[in-house]
Amino acid sequence: MVGAIALVEAKELYRSDTLLVRQVDAGEGKNWIITFDHHSIGAGFNRSGFGEEFLRDNGFSAIHGVTTRK
Q1: Cα gap 40→63, rounded to integer Å
Q2: Domain ranges of the chain
Q3: What is the pLDDT of residue 27?
């Protein structure tokens, strides 16, 4: 199961100058979690969403809102 989870890719749902929303399907997809990070974490979108790896590795599908400063 761990090998299958590692193949899960994020799907970009929305992107603006300050917000990226991505979907990560894991497990059976029956339960979904929505996460957001804090806008002052840093510049750019080159980081995971809040709890992204933990949720994916434990079979939870999630939608992550990642924000950035201009």
Answers
A1: 20
A2: 2-67
A3: 75
